[in-house]
Amino acid sequence: MMRAYKFLLRPTAHQNAALAQMLSDHCSLYNAGLQERRDAYRHSSKTTIRYGQQSAQLKAIRAFDPERQGRWSFSSQQATLRRLDKAFQAFFRRVKAGLTPGYPRFKGAGHFDTVVFPKDGDGCRWDSTPENTQTRVRLQGVGHVRVHQHRSVRGRVKTVSIKREGRRWYVILVCDVGSASPLPPNGAIAGIDMGIAHFLTTSTGKHVANPRFLEASAQELAEAQRHLSTFPRRTNQRTKKHRAAARKIAKLHSKIRRRRLDHHHKQAMLLVRDYDVIVHERLNTAGMTRSPAPKPDAEQASKFLPNGHAAKAGLNRSILDAGWGIFLSILANKAESAGRRVIAVEARDTSRTCPPSAGGCGHIAKGNRVTQAEFECVKCGYSENADVVGALNIEHRAGLVLCAEA
Predict the structure, then answer these.
(1) ∠ at Cα 156 (151, 161), nearest 5°?
(2) Where are the domains of the chain?
(3) What 8-state DSSP symbol labels residue 361?
(4) Would you tell me which of 51, 125, 203, 245 could form a disulfide with 138, CB atoms 3.0–4.6 Å apart?
(5) What is the pLDDT of residues 283-309, one digit of tens each?
(6) Residue 33 in 3-state DSSP?
(7) What is the rounded (10 degree) CA torsion for 330, 333, 339, 345?
């Protein structure tokens, strides 16, 4: 079983400059590889450049430019070219599937933020032992960088990644921790209903408040964005004040993201500790947050009818702020580590069905959902909080899945 650890780096001023240069040179390599593939296709549509051909050129590239390319790890440069190759593989897969292709684009300085070292000991070395009071990571061309290791690392380090977030640098370790360390079983099963009014509701009736981190910082973020808009945007020219204003916005978004992740990790751990089986809806977040299609006006050319775009935009913002997809991914990973089970069930009509597991009749009707928070069955009169009803139905459907497996 693989597990990732993320630690803050404490580089010196010299190391910070070296890390920035390493990121810039890998970005240049990525863009050069992309340009080669584009040129080959333009000259002859039958010519295909693959990863193996570009990787074979690395030795000559490093010899030609020892200052910018020769000083960095060979394996990390191969990982950058693999990243480009994966982008093209995803592009061709979308073309064949009839989806919006999205041709790979050149990476700007602010959109290339990660360098991967595929193997610990090849261009990098994680230097951490119980005897060491100062944890460091050694990087070729940078040196030994101090690490703020806030927890112990289990297992064998497989890959090391260096990532920049704003002005901070992080090291991400992917480790093979072997088998899971299961928690003692307690036989408890719970369904969880994800929502906006409440972040989640369990089938036991427990509500977890939605912290709404983006909404809480909306005013401060709007002020920072208005301040940024006062600076004229010239081509290839960014003043010192413009860069400072952009960094402030990035810092605010980073703070919101960290607070959201902290909340997700804590809530997921509480669920994993309390229940053996956790059941949730199979949610299509991308489809739920898609903008409504425009409605052309049949009577007036080039005119459109109201389609509820403004209201849908607010709902989409709330769903994305809650971060259901990220939370469910974190929950699945923590459950796997603890030997718990997570089941995803069909989401259709969970909030419109009278819950048979709680004494309801199982009747499905749109009228059962009186308001966003109230449920009252039109057939038998069963009433309960609508989110609790959804969680009960989710748990009931998991019971049917477990009975079918047995």
Answers:
(1) 70
(2) 2-176, 189-347
(3) -
(4) 125
(5) 998 888 988 888 888 888 888 888 888
(6) helix
(7) 70
